[in-house]
């Protein structure tokens, strides 16, 4: 079988055997691409979900803040933002009073040419663009406490705006169930002090903090509560095809419109297997999502609900930026054994913001051995992190078939990684937790 995996910017062609237990190439159902997305966005701004039109909401407001996703998210800003900005200008909000706030979360800022690539030359030239820095205390304002007294600090420039608009796109998310909506605020523009709770070991270990789960998901519920505290007047989110074309636009009330988008996407991206598999060949959906090991954990977590205990996930990820930021690498370098590391996390011996990445990796490894093919991280480093490296996807599959039996092994290929949410019929769990 000749199969093209999502890998980096160009993809990866592999040639794999079709054995008796091969379940298939599993992909999300394809939704039709919108023929005229800009016109569709304009219509949604006039006829939104559960909300007054944006023009009516904007009337009389003096300042506006539009939250936009950072460079790690393939949001089609060139299509999304101009219609929104046009409505604001027609409503009387001067360009110099409109702020575009890049929701970096705990990621690095997007500046210079990268900001132009993200937003477009005209927007960067004509509007004020600011990156969120989660560790700058002076940029944050206290909005109250949630849960068991968790302090919530959010970017004060967002809070100070008369009109607050969230943008982004909806995709499967390993903690929030689905991305988009409230995630623009948490973790998008929240302080590291608040992110500590949301990325803390108890939250990451919770059984319903999982792909495709909203009901009973404490991450989702906390994010909604924080959005309620900070305020959000309007939301514009899109869903995308595997080729990053717009398939749906969901604008209006930040809760109702987001839920509608999640329902639309769930019908396409959740696949239920009759029984768990011995191994899965998957990816992190290609660039920009497979830029580093930090992001690649998403593919591993997504695969595990389709695997039996002891089943193996083989991920192909370019990791062209290496492991990730220095904090992420610091955490991985602290690991002696997966079990000991997880215990130290739960004992709260330390807290490093990006420890969630390693926690997810080793929660997976506790149940499912994790193999990887990549050009971006040295083999000796990955082996020190307890990954099994393969020279090629083909050689990895040959080894797996030998291990599980060429005629007996039940396996599948998931070319688009975490864009597909796997379930196993009759299972009450969502994977490795």
Q: Which terms summarize this structure?
A:
433 residues, alpha/beta, 2-enoyl-CoA Hydratase, Chain A, domain 1, Rossmann fold, 2 domains, six-stranded mixed sheet, 16 helices, 20 strands
Short description:
The protein has helices spanning 37-46, 54-58, 77-90, 113-119, 121-126, 156-160, 192-198, 201-205, 218-230, 256-269, 293-303, 326-333, 338-346, 355-367, 379-384, 393-404; strands spanning 2-5, 12-15, 22-25, 64-69, 98-103, 128-131, 140-146, 150-155, 163-169, 172-173, 177-178, 234-240, 246-252, 270-273, 277-283, 307-316, 370-373, 388-389, 411-414, 421-424. It is an alpha/beta fold and 433 residues long.
> How far is it from the N-terminal to the C-terminal residue, by CA?
33 Å
Percent helix range: 25-40%
**CATH A-level architecture of the largest domain:** 3-Layer(aba) Sandwich
Summarize the main sheet: 6 strands, parallel
The overall pLDDT average reads 95
Structure description:
This protein is 33% helix and 23% strand. The chain folds into two domains: 2-28 and 274-424, 2-enoyl-CoA Hydratase, Chain A, domain 1; 37-267, Rossmann fold, CATH 3.40.50.11440. α15 (379-384) links the parallel β17 (370-373) and β18. The mean pLDDT is 95. The radius of gyration is 22 Å and the shape is globular. The protein contains 16 helices and 20 strands.
What's the arrangement of secondary structure elements?
Elements: E1 2-5, E2 12-15, E3 22-25, H1 37-46, H2 54-58, E4 64-69, H3 77-90, E5 98-103, H4 113-119, H5 121-126, E6 128-131, E7 140-146, E8 150-155, H6 156-160, E9 163-169, E10 172-173, E11 177-178, H7 192-198, H8 201-205, H9 218-230, E12 234-240, E13 246-252, H10 256-269, E14 270-273, E15 277-283, H11 293-303, E16 307-316, H12 326-333, H13 338-346, H14 355-367, E17 370-373, H15 379-384, E18 388-389, H16 393-404, E19 411-414, E20 421-424
Parallel strand pairs: 3-19, 4-5, 4-9, 5-6, 9-12, 14-20, 15-16, 15-19, 16-17, 17-18
Antiparallel strand pairs: 1-2, 7-8, 10-11, 12-13
Helix pairs in contact: 1-3, 11-14, 13-14
